[in-house]
Fold this sequence. Notes:
By secondary structure, the chain is of the alpha+beta class. The chain has 12 helices and 12 strands.
Amino acid sequence: MKQAFDKLGKQKSVSAEIGFDANADKIFTALRGEDDFTREDAGVLSDLRLSYALSSDKPLKDVEEDDDKTAGSVQVSKRDGKPLFEIRAMGADKLYARGDLKSVLELADKADKGGKGKSGKSASGREALDQLAKKADSLPSSMDAVKGALKGEWILLDPKSFEEFSKSKGGAKGSDKKLDPKAQKQLFDSLEKALGDNATFKDAGKKNGADHVKVTVPAKKFAQDLKEGLKPLKDKLGDKAGKLDGLDKVKDKDLTVDVAVKDGMVSGLTLDIAQLSEKIKGELPLTLAIKGGSGKITAPAGAKELKPQDLLGAAMFMFRDKMPGMGKGGGMDSGVNSGADQSPFGGPDMDFDL
């Protein structure tokens, strides 16, 4: 088993997809005891997939923090592969993003029983999006990135510029605590040791071309061994260190994970989450499908850069009718309509330091 994980780490790219391996009826049967959980909610859960990917010019086990040759992506999509939201990070200073806001609201509408649920938020959300899209069409050409973002097109973000902008406006500063490569290795070594000392393995046969192994771990002892192994990292974990105390609350029961191995590499993990809660009625498998050598992550073509000032300026432009002294005929409108040489943020009485 260790060799199967090691071979995965020797790849230069890997992708993983998380989702329930169950249809809406099975999910509803398992979770209908949860508060306000409906069949529509079950349909949404059965349709959603969360994907991660990582690629580099070297084996992933050798990648270090802030490696500018490493790219990563996160995507929320529907079962048919249609992306709802996606982020791609190329190195440490380029972030690409796109989101299909209309499809997200349609999914929320489905969970809200066709807009007739108690909240009515999804219906009002679609109306607000339609209004925003109409207003976005009137934005000046300098704000094309904002228009593109609302239409689900790729945009380019510079994380450092957003961080600096937030600090200049009095925003909260991020934590400086990071796990360096040595600390990261120590974390994984602690996890591997806790598993190795506690796990038992049972051959589960072959399925869809992969060998399956049932890995069983006594949850409470595993949690305590893991907590002990992570103690030397407590200072480097920062705010996350407090979560180690939560390992004391793990119940004394066995947990079993189905591990699939294909071509000598781990290709999937399946956990029946009914093991985690007595409220869940019946099996509810959550699957992590893994693919080593999945291919290089590339930057999307045609992305427009979105600057933090653009967001502020666009918000002021589109909601000017709700701001005192900035309605039609006021400073904001006169600034936009008076020619290309004047700032879109108004006349001489509106001095915005953007």
